[in-house]
Design goal:
Chain lengths: 151, 151
Protein backbone atom coordinates (compact mmCIF):
# COMPACT_ATOMS: atom_id res chain seq x y z
CA UNK A 1 0.00 0.00 0.00
CA UNK A 2 1.02 3.59 -0.51
CA UNK A 3 0.08 6.96 0.90
CA UNK A 4 -2.94 8.53 -0.76
CA UNK A 5 -3.55 5.60 -3.10
CA UNK A 6 -6.67 3.43 -2.89
CA UNK A 7 -5.63 0.06 -1.39
CA UNK A 8 -7.63 -1.74 -4.12
CA UNK A 9 -4.90 -0.60 -6.50
CA UNK A 10 -2.55 -3.53 -6.01
CA UNK A 11 1.08 -3.30 -7.15
CA UNK A 12 0.22 -5.02 -10.43
CA UNK A 13 -2.88 -2.93 -11.07
CA UNK A 14 -1.07 0.29 -10.28
CA UNK A 15 1.74 -0.65 -12.67
CA UNK A 16 -0.75 -1.54 -15.37
CA UNK A 17 -2.69 1.70 -15.10
CA UNK A 18 0.54 3.72 -14.99
CA UNK A 19 2.09 2.10 -18.07
CA UNK A 20 -0.98 2.70 -20.25
CA UNK A 21 -0.67 5.65 -22.62
CA UNK A 22 -3.01 8.10 -24.30
CA UNK A 23 -5.92 6.34 -25.95
CA UNK A 24 -5.22 2.92 -24.42
CA UNK A 25 -8.33 1.27 -23.04
CA UNK A 26 -8.91 -0.81 -19.94
CA UNK A 27 -11.89 -3.11 -19.45
CA UNK A 28 -13.54 -3.34 -16.03
CA UNK A 29 -15.60 -6.49 -16.16
CA UNK A 30 -18.13 -8.26 -14.00
CA UNK A 31 -17.58 -11.70 -12.49
CA UNK A 32 -19.33 -13.52 -15.35
CA UNK A 33 -17.33 -11.84 -18.09
CA UNK A 34 -15.23 -13.95 -20.46
CA UNK A 35 -12.04 -12.34 -19.21
CA UNK A 36 -9.83 -15.39 -19.64
CA UNK A 37 -10.76 -16.12 -23.24
CA UNK A 38 -11.16 -12.55 -24.52
CA UNK A 39 -8.09 -11.58 -22.54
CA UNK A 40 -5.79 -14.20 -24.04
CA UNK A 41 -2.48 -12.49 -24.76
CA UNK A 42 -3.37 -9.55 -22.53
CA UNK A 43 -2.86 -8.84 -18.89
CA UNK A 44 -5.91 -9.95 -16.90
CA UNK A 45 -6.03 -8.92 -13.25
CA UNK A 46 -8.71 -9.97 -10.76
CA UNK A 47 -10.44 -8.21 -7.91
CA UNK A 48 -12.53 -11.05 -6.44
CA UNK A 49 -15.22 -9.93 -4.03
CA UNK A 50 -15.03 -6.31 -5.15
CA UNK A 51 -18.08 -4.68 -6.71
CA UNK A 52 -17.97 -2.55 -9.85
CA UNK A 53 -18.72 0.74 -8.11
CA UNK A 54 -15.80 0.29 -5.75
CA UNK A 55 -13.45 -0.94 -8.49
CA UNK A 56 -14.37 1.88 -10.83
CA UNK A 57 -13.90 4.51 -8.14
CA UNK A 58 -10.47 3.11 -7.25
CA UNK A 59 -9.30 3.07 -10.88
CA UNK A 60 -10.65 6.54 -11.62
CA UNK A 61 -8.96 7.98 -8.54
CA UNK A 62 -5.69 7.85 -10.52
CA UNK A 63 -6.72 7.19 -14.14
CA UNK A 64 -7.40 10.23 -16.34
CA UNK A 65 -10.16 9.78 -18.91
CA UNK A 66 -9.50 10.88 -22.47
CA UNK A 67 -10.88 14.32 -23.27
CA UNK A 68 -9.84 14.05 -26.94
CA UNK A 69 -12.98 11.97 -27.59
CA UNK A 70 -16.61 12.68 -26.82
CA UNK A 71 -17.20 9.38 -25.03
CA UNK A 72 -14.19 7.98 -23.15
CA UNK A 73 -16.43 5.52 -21.28
CA UNK A 74 -18.41 2.67 -22.81
CA UNK A 75 -20.62 0.10 -21.14
CA UNK A 76 -22.29 -3.08 -22.31
CA UNK A 77 -25.91 -2.46 -23.27
CA UNK A 78 -28.31 -4.81 -21.50
CA UNK A 79 -29.68 -7.27 -24.10
CA UNK A 80 -33.11 -6.59 -25.59
CA UNK A 81 -33.50 -3.17 -24.09
CA UNK A 82 -34.34 0.07 -25.88
CA UNK A 83 -31.70 2.67 -26.69
CA UNK A 84 -30.97 4.75 -23.62
CA UNK A 85 -31.76 1.99 -21.15
CA UNK A 86 -29.25 1.62 -18.34
CA UNK A 87 -29.36 -0.94 -15.54
CA UNK A 88 -29.45 0.31 -11.98
CA UNK A 89 -25.79 -0.58 -11.52
CA UNK A 90 -24.83 1.20 -14.74
CA UNK A 91 -26.70 4.28 -13.55
CA UNK A 92 -24.95 4.10 -10.19
CA UNK A 93 -21.47 3.74 -11.68
CA UNK A 94 -22.11 6.58 -14.12
CA UNK A 95 -23.53 8.72 -11.36
CA UNK A 96 -20.38 8.03 -9.28
CA UNK A 97 -18.26 9.13 -12.24
CA UNK A 98 -20.20 12.37 -12.40
CA UNK A 99 -19.91 12.96 -8.67
CA UNK A 100 -16.15 12.45 -8.74
CA UNK A 101 -15.76 14.73 -11.75
CA UNK A 102 -14.44 11.93 -13.96
CA UNK A 103 -17.16 11.82 -16.63
CA UNK A 104 -20.66 13.07 -17.20
CA UNK A 105 -23.53 10.84 -18.28
CA UNK A 106 -23.24 12.03 -21.91
CA UNK A 107 -19.61 10.90 -22.01
CA UNK A 108 -20.71 7.28 -21.52
CA UNK A 109 -21.61 5.27 -24.59
CA UNK A 110 -23.72 2.10 -24.78
CA UNK A 111 -22.25 -0.76 -26.81
CA UNK A 112 -24.19 -3.83 -27.85
CA UNK A 113 -22.69 -7.04 -26.43
CA UNK A 114 -20.72 -8.18 -29.48
CA UNK A 115 -19.55 -4.68 -30.34
CA UNK A 116 -18.33 -4.54 -26.75
CA UNK A 117 -16.39 -7.78 -27.27
CA UNK A 118 -14.74 -6.27 -30.37
CA UNK A 119 -13.69 -3.31 -28.29
CA UNK A 120 -12.28 -5.65 -25.65
CA UNK A 121 -10.16 -7.24 -28.37
CA UNK A 122 -8.36 -3.93 -28.85
CA UNK A 123 -8.07 -3.13 -25.13
CA UNK A 124 -4.78 -2.98 -23.27
CA UNK A 125 -5.89 -5.12 -20.34
CA UNK A 126 -8.84 -6.47 -18.41
CA UNK A 127 -9.64 -6.13 -14.74
CA UNK A 128 -12.23 -8.66 -13.69
CA UNK A 129 -14.05 -7.56 -10.57
CA UNK A 130 -16.25 -9.64 -8.28
CA UNK A 131 -19.37 -7.79 -9.45
CA UNK A 132 -22.34 -10.19 -9.49
CA UNK A 133 -24.76 -7.88 -11.32
CA UNK A 134 -25.04 -8.94 -14.95
CA UNK A 135 -24.11 -6.54 -17.78
CA UNK A 136 -21.72 -4.67 -15.51
CA UNK A 137 -18.91 -4.22 -18.03
CA UNK A 138 -17.14 -0.98 -18.80
CA UNK A 139 -14.34 0.27 -21.02
CA UNK A 140 -12.33 3.32 -19.96
CA UNK A 141 -10.09 5.20 -22.42
CA UNK A 142 -6.99 6.78 -20.91
CA UNK A 143 -6.32 10.48 -21.27
CA UNK A 144 -3.23 12.57 -20.78
CA UNK A 145 -1.61 14.34 -17.87
CA UNK A 146 0.12 17.38 -19.24
CA UNK A 147 1.43 20.71 -18.22
CA UNK A 148 -0.34 23.70 -19.66
CA UNK A 149 0.99 24.55 -23.10
CA UNK A 150 3.28 27.54 -22.82
CA UNK A 151 1.60 30.69 -24.09
CA UNK B 1 1.42 8.51 -15.76
CA UNK B 2 -1.42 8.77 -13.32
CA UNK B 3 -3.43 11.55 -11.69
CA UNK B 4 -1.81 12.94 -8.57
CA UNK B 5 1.26 10.72 -8.79
CA UNK B 6 4.76 12.09 -9.39
CA UNK B 7 5.74 11.23 -12.99
CA UNK B 8 9.16 10.03 -11.74
CA UNK B 9 7.29 7.08 -10.26
CA UNK B 10 7.40 4.84 -13.31
CA UNK B 11 5.11 1.81 -13.57
CA UNK B 12 7.87 -0.46 -12.27
CA UNK B 13 8.87 1.85 -9.44
CA UNK B 14 5.27 2.38 -8.37
CA UNK B 15 4.70 -1.39 -8.33
CA UNK B 16 7.87 -1.92 -6.33
CA UNK B 17 7.02 0.67 -3.70
CA UNK B 18 3.46 -0.62 -3.46
CA UNK B 19 4.41 -4.27 -2.99
CA UNK B 20 6.84 -3.55 -0.15
CA UNK B 21 5.49 -4.28 3.32
CA UNK B 22 6.06 -3.02 6.84
CA UNK B 23 9.75 -2.89 7.69
CA UNK B 24 10.98 -3.55 4.15
CA UNK B 25 13.76 -1.20 3.12
CA UNK B 26 14.52 0.52 -0.16
CA UNK B 27 17.91 1.95 -1.08
CA UNK B 28 18.10 5.24 -2.97
CA UNK B 29 21.61 5.36 -4.34
CA UNK B 30 23.81 7.82 -6.17
CA UNK B 31 25.17 7.27 -9.67
CA UNK B 32 28.47 5.81 -8.42
CA UNK B 33 26.87 3.27 -6.10
CA UNK B 34 27.55 -0.43 -6.63
CA UNK B 35 23.89 -1.08 -7.39
CA UNK B 36 24.48 -3.88 -9.88
CA UNK B 37 26.74 -5.97 -7.67
CA UNK B 38 25.13 -5.29 -4.29
CA UNK B 39 21.73 -5.61 -5.94
CA UNK B 40 22.35 -9.04 -7.46
CA UNK B 41 19.17 -11.05 -6.89
CA UNK B 42 17.15 -7.93 -6.10
CA UNK B 43 15.17 -5.53 -8.21
CA UNK B 44 17.37 -2.63 -9.31
CA UNK B 45 15.62 0.29 -11.00
CA UNK B 46 17.36 3.32 -12.51
CA UNK B 47 16.51 6.98 -12.64
CA UNK B 48 19.31 8.32 -14.87
CA UNK B 49 19.68 12.07 -14.87
CA UNK B 50 17.57 12.49 -11.74
CA UNK B 51 19.12 13.99 -8.62
CA UNK B 52 18.68 12.57 -5.12
CA UNK B 53 16.51 15.40 -3.83
CA UNK B 54 14.03 14.94 -6.66
CA UNK B 55 14.06 11.14 -6.41
CA UNK B 56 13.63 11.16 -2.65
CA UNK B 57 10.74 13.61 -2.83
CA UNK B 58 8.99 11.50 -5.46
CA UNK B 59 9.36 8.28 -3.46
CA UNK B 60 8.30 9.89 -0.19
CA UNK B 61 5.20 11.40 -1.82
CA UNK B 62 3.66 7.91 -1.64
CA UNK B 63 5.97 5.88 0.67
CA UNK B 64 5.16 5.93 4.39
CA UNK B 65 8.20 5.82 6.69
CA UNK B 66 8.16 3.39 9.58
CA UNK B 67 7.15 4.98 12.87
CA UNK B 68 7.78 1.74 14.80
CA UNK B 69 11.51 2.57 14.83
CA UNK B 70 13.32 5.69 15.99
CA UNK B 71 15.29 6.10 12.76
CA UNK B 72 13.51 4.90 9.60
CA UNK B 73 16.05 6.74 7.41
CA UNK B 74 19.76 5.97 7.15
CA UNK B 75 22.42 7.61 5.03
CA UNK B 76 26.02 6.75 4.21
CA UNK B 77 28.41 8.67 6.42
CA UNK B 78 31.02 10.56 4.42
CA UNK B 79 34.41 8.82 4.93
CA UNK B 80 36.83 10.28 7.48
CA UNK B 81 34.39 12.76 8.92
CA UNK B 82 33.46 13.25 12.58
CA UNK B 83 30.20 11.95 14.03
CA UNK B 84 27.37 14.28 13.14
CA UNK B 85 28.91 15.46 9.88
CA UNK B 86 26.51 15.59 6.95
CA UNK B 87 27.34 16.64 3.41
CA UNK B 88 25.48 19.57 1.91
CA UNK B 89 23.36 17.18 -0.17
CA UNK B 90 22.58 15.02 2.87
CA UNK B 91 21.50 18.15 4.75
CA UNK B 92 19.33 19.22 1.82
CA UNK B 93 17.63 15.84 1.46
CA UNK B 94 17.02 15.61 5.20
CA UNK B 95 15.73 19.16 5.26
CA UNK B 96 13.33 18.28 2.40
CA UNK B 97 12.11 15.29 4.44
CA UNK B 98 11.40 17.61 7.34
CA UNK B 99 9.62 20.16 5.17
CA UNK B 100 7.37 17.49 3.65
CA UNK B 101 6.60 16.03 7.07
CA UNK B 102 8.19 12.68 6.23
CA UNK B 103 11.00 12.58 8.80
CA UNK B 104 12.79 14.92 11.15
CA UNK B 105 16.57 15.25 11.29
CA UNK B 106 16.77 13.04 14.41
CA UNK B 107 15.02 10.23 12.54
CA UNK B 108 17.97 9.96 10.13
CA UNK B 109 20.86 7.77 11.12
CA UNK B 110 24.44 7.86 9.79
CA UNK B 111 25.92 4.51 8.74
CA UNK B 112 29.57 3.96 8.00
CA UNK B 113 30.16 2.82 4.40
CA UNK B 114 30.52 -0.91 5.03
CA UNK B 115 27.70 -1.00 7.59
CA UNK B 116 25.62 0.69 4.90
CA UNK B 117 26.55 -2.07 2.44
CA UNK B 118 25.43 -4.70 4.98
CA UNK B 119 22.11 -2.91 5.26
CA UNK B 120 21.80 -2.87 1.46
CA UNK B 121 22.25 -6.64 1.52
CA UNK B 122 19.01 -6.94 3.49
CA UNK B 123 17.11 -4.34 1.46
CA UNK B 124 14.14 -5.15 -0.74
CA UNK B 125 15.34 -3.23 -3.77
CA UNK B 126 17.64 -0.51 -5.01
CA UNK B 127 16.79 2.61 -6.97
CA UNK B 128 19.88 4.08 -8.54
CA UNK B 129 19.43 7.76 -9.29
CA UNK B 130 21.57 9.97 -11.50
CA UNK B 131 22.91 11.87 -8.48
CA UNK B 132 26.53 12.88 -9.11
CA UNK B 133 27.30 14.04 -5.56
CA UNK B 134 29.34 11.40 -3.77
CA UNK B 135 28.05 9.74 -0.57
CA UNK B 136 24.45 10.41 -1.59
CA UNK B 137 23.03 7.07 -0.51
CA UNK B 138 19.96 6.55 1.63
CA UNK B 139 17.92 3.69 3.04
CA UNK B 140 14.21 4.20 3.74
CA UNK B 141 12.24 1.77 5.91
CA UNK B 142 8.58 1.35 4.98
CA UNK B 143 5.84 2.01 7.50
CA UNK B 144 2.18 1.09 7.58
CA UNK B 145 -1.01 2.65 6.32
CA UNK B 146 -3.73 1.71 8.73
CA UNK B 147 -7.12 2.76 9.86
CA UNK B 148 -7.35 3.99 13.41
CA UNK B 149 -7.70 1.12 15.86
CA UNK B 150 -11.29 0.86 16.96
CA UNK B 151 -11.76 2.17 20.49
Amino acid sequence: MLKGIDPLLSPDLLKLLCEMGHGDEIVLADANFTAGSLGRGKTVLRLPGIGMRQACAAVLSVFPLDDFVAQPVAYMQVGDTPAGYRSELQREVISDMGASGSAGSEQCEALERFAFYDRVGRAYAIVQTGELQAWANFVLKKGVIAEELRK
